[in-house]
Amino acid sequence: MKYGKYAKAYVLGTQGIFSMAIFSVIGFFVGYYIDKDSFWPVTLAICGLIIGFFNLMISLLYLAKMADKERKVKNDD
Fold first, then answer.
1. Tens of pLDDT, residues 30-56
2. Which among 67, 44, 66, 47 is positioned nearest to 55, based on CA atoms?
3. 3, exposed or middle or buried, with CB in 10 Å at 0-12, 13-18, 19+?
4. pLDDT digits (tens, 9 = 90+) for 63-72
5. What predicted TM-score, i.e. pTM, was given to this entire model?
6. From residue 20, how far is each of 39, 57, 58 by CA, in Å?
């Protein structure tokens, strides 16, 4: 049995979770550096989370596109 598909899904999910966490932390600290008693830390942390989510979606679409290309090459042979 091939585990390549499951490994790719695991790696993509882990990358997505870590990227959302890292971007959120970076956004929080930038907002904290700007003004710790205002709304900026939370706002920029949420923006970082959204950026991480979009990063995950772009990676997912790229992976799906590459899988379609591989299938097309296999079917042409």
1. 999 999 899 999 999 999 999 999 999
2. 47
3. exposed
4. 888 888 888 8
5. 0.80
6. 20, 11, 13
CA distances from 52 to 12, 33, 41, 60 (A): 12, 21, 16, 12
C-alpha dist (Å) from residue 25 to 11, 19, 29, 31, 42:
21, 10, 6, 10, 10
Euclidean distance between CA atoms 53 and 66, whole angstroms:
20
Rounded distance, CA 40 to CA 53, Å?
Answer: 20
In angstroms, rounded to a whole number, what is the distance separating the alpha carbons of residues 26 and 34?
12
